[in-house]
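can u do me a favor
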């Protein structure tokens, strides 16, 4: 399963981090927007091309440093058909460069939409005798709040080197309004974690981790500490580094004693590091790499990846 490959790549690079590609028009380097509008006019197509160029530039800059990438589908899909095409290109480029590639759908699918997502990302959409996988990736994150109907269509692919991450506790401040509510004798985010254990069945990789992982915020170190001890066979995807206020001293609790079992995700902290350099953004790749190195080194002050 692909979580196994993710753990292997983390060990090979000695770097338990993931870059999140969620481009925002207002924060792109000005020269990329100017180049795109010069070719395509002031159109959504131009913005989609700028997103693609920027994202691929980040991927190229971090290819030998960061083992994994999360691509935020909604940022691209908001731009219509050109954005969807850019999303396909970015996913393909990430896979070509050897990243573990996670598609962040932000979806809570029904059985019908879940099957459609499974085919688009994992299994291939049949058109006559041909099959197409436009959103090919190693794993997918989703919101499980429609219950087992959300994940059942995707479970068969866990046997085919694919993985799922269920959002249990996100990093945004208002997450507590829903995710920390009591549900019987548990809070909602623990219910999600328990369901992940139930839905994964006996699907474990050689390193012992389930084919379904969970998203747990790095801004809640007490949660990480408690759940790492209780759920030692679940892989954690930990958002919230940098911009949301979590750092190595917080996220260290997501890992086991061997420095395994988690990957820490950052987006704005890496993508827009150029804003702190005082330049015009033409150095965005260089500054992203320096920020990624700083993130890695900060985390490795607290853990060792064996």
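np, heres the sequence
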């Amino acid at each position: 399963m692909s979580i196994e490959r993710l753990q292997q790549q983390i060990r090979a690079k000695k770097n338990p981090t993931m870059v999140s590609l969620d481009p925002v028009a207002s924060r792109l380097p000005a020269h990329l927007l100017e180049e795109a509008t010069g070719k395509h006019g002031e159109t959504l197509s131009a913005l989609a091309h700028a997103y693609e160029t920027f994202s691929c530039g980040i991927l190229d800059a971090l290819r030998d440093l960061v083992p994994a990438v999360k691509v935020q589908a909604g940022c691209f899909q908001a731009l219509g058909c050109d954005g969807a095409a850019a999303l396909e290109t970015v996913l393909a480029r990430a896979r070509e460069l050897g990243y573990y590639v996670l598609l962040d759908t932000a979806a809570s699918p029904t059985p019908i939409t879940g099957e459609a997502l499974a085919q688009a990302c994992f299994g291939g959409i049949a058109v006559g005798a041909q099959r197409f996988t436009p959103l090919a990736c190693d794993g997918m994150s989703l919101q499980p709040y429609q219950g087992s109907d959300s994940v059942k269509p995707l479970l068969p692919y866990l046997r085919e080197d694919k993985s799922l991450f269920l959002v249990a506790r996100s990093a945004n401040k208002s997450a507590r309004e829903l995710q920390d509510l009591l549900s019987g004798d548990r809070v909602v985010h623990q219910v999600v974690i328990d369901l992940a254990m139930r839905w994964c069945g006996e699907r474990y990789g050689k390193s012992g981790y389930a084919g379904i992982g969970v998203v747990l915020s790095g801004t809640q170190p007490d949660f990480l500490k408690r759940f790492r001890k209780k759920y030692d066979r679940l892989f954690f995807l930990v958002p919230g580094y940098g911009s949301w206020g979590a750092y190595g001293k917080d996220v260290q609790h997501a890992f086991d004693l061997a420095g395994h079992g988690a990957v820490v995700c950052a987006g704005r902290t890496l993508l827009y590091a150029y804003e702190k350099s005082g330049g015009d953004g033409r150095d965005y790749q260089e500054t992203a790499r320096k920020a990624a190195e700083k993130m890695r080194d900060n985390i490795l002050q607290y853990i060792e990846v064996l």
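The mean pLDDT is 93. hope that helps!!
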